[in-house]
Specification:
Distance between the termini: 83 Å
Radius of gyration: 25 Å
Shape: globular
Helix content: 40-55%
Length: 430
């Protein structure tokens, strides 16, 4: 009787064990919701899904759930709305320039909280210094570079040849750019422009495009603390005037130019040169049916471009287990081999020198030199314009750019108005 009872007990225990194991496994699975912005062309979502799947295979206790949230602007609105509702994502890729806003909203935790080992420290120190300028504040690291970029100049080599320009030597300064744009502009018999020499988009990221010219003019728009701006600096006014004058000269489309349609205009030969993110490189490589080149942004008093793009952030209201899982994912996805693949798949800049030292990216750079232009521009790059209450301050500058380009205001008046508005917004942060 005792033996039979014991046997029944073992059978029941085994059954209970079998029934319990999946539930236990489910309880041990840490879910990481991951808001991701899709803001440029190329197979971005497919690449992110692939990374998430590979990570989960290697880390079966963590479930990464990418949620594609629209543009950068839409993604931060959704992330902060969820944060205020108490249900934020665990991690998100948001603009590096959103750092001050996320800190002010008490929405994120410093990455330093998770850096414990020598390997962790070496990893955090491996990112390009230019990208860390928009990732640190107050002695803490708040974001980890991932989808990072600079602005570069794409140009149609065939149209350069037609215009008698050297297809292997893009304009190196602003005077050369204006002269080349004049040669590259084509009109019909009635004087209607069929092809502009240069096109610089001014919607969405007008402030960023202006920074290409202010950087060339050796003007810095904001202080490191994000509490003061110099939008009405004479060097900034001169930079915006240059942009306006391209339109007045008829070598650049008049008025406001759409960010999203600029690559299409380039593909359709409506413009011979365009400024846009290096994150569009794979898009251009796939869709330009002509030989194209990529050049650094033309200089004036100096060379350089603002950096741009997105950082990983970890949200404060996520559980400690979720935060640790997110850190593990962030560290995994930014390792040199994966950063190299990401750069090749998208055109974004690989975020560390070690990534460019991988066999895959070394070979890719030899076979496709345009992939190295943005990296080579990093030593002279500056931090992207970023302040506290960044979206409102940036809107003031974007509005100024568009007012000047449409002729509603002079560049000097537009930037003076933007300065007054920025001073008003930033008063409480000084």
């Amino acid at each position: 009787m005792k033996r039979k009872t014991f046997t029944l007990f073992l059978a029941a225990a085994a059954a209970a064990s079998l029934a319990w194991t999946p539930a236990q496994a489910q309880a041990q699975t840490t879910e990481v919701s991951f808001f991701y912005p899709v803001a440029v062309g190329g197979p971005i979502a497919k690449a992110i899904d692939g990374f998430a799947a590979d990570f989960m295979k290697a880390n079966p206790g963590i479930k990464v759930n990418p949620i594609y949230a629209g543009t950068y602007q839409e993604t931060i609105v959704k992330a902060l709305t969820a944060h205020k509702a108490g249900t934020p994502p665990v991690t998100s890729v948001l603009l590096s320039t959103d750092m001050f806003t996320l800190i002010d909203e008490d929405a994120i935790v410093p990455i330093d909280n998770f850096v414990r080992t020598a390997d962790d420290k070496a990893w955090l120190d491996s990112f390009y210094p230019a990208f860390m300028m928009n990732s640190r504040s107050g002695g803490k690291t708040w974001g980890v570079p991932f989808q990072r970029s600079t602005i570069v100049m794409y140009y149609n080599k065939e149209l350069f040849k037609e215009a008698g320009l050297d297809p292997n030597r893009p304009p190196e300064n602003l005077a050369e750019l204006k002269a080349a744009a004049a040669k590259l502009t084509k009109k019909d018999a009635s004087g209607k422009v069929l092809q502009y020499g240069v096109q610089i988009p001014s919607t969405g990221f007008g402030y960023w495009m202006l920074q290409t010219m202010t950087t060339a003019n050796d003007a810095i728009l904001a202080n490191d603390a994000g509490t003061q701006v110099k939008l009405d600096d004479p060097k900034v006014v001169e930079s915006l005037q240059y942009w306006v004058d391209l339109g007045k000269a008829g070598v650049h489309p008049p008025g406001v130019v759409e960010w999203g349609t600029t690559p299409k205009d380039f593909f359709e030969k409506k413009t011979a040169i365009m400024y846009t993110t290096t994150g569009n490189l794979t898009n251009v490589k796939a869709n330009a049916k002509f030989d194209f080149g990529v050049g650094m942004i033309p200089g004036n008093k100096r060379k350089g471009s603002p950096t741009g793009g997105g950082n990983f952030y970890i949200f404060k209201k996520a559980s400690p287990a979720q935060q640790e899982a997110a850190f593990k994912f962030i560290k995994w996805i930014t390792q040199p081999e994966r950063a190299a693949v990401w750069s090749m798949d998208t055109g974004y800049v690989a975020v560390s020198q070690a990534a460019y030292g991988t066999d895959a990216l070394r070979k890719y750079g030899r076979d496709f030199p345009p992939a190295l232009v943005a990296r080579d521009q990093l030593p002279v790059s500056v931090a992207e314009f970023s302040t506290h209450d960044n979206q409102r301050v940036t809107k003031a500058l974007n509005d100024a750019v568009q007012a000047a380009l449409t002729g509603a205001k002079t560049p000097a008046q537009a930037l003076q108005d933007a300065q007054h508005e920025a001073d008003r917004i930033l008063r409480s942060y000084k």
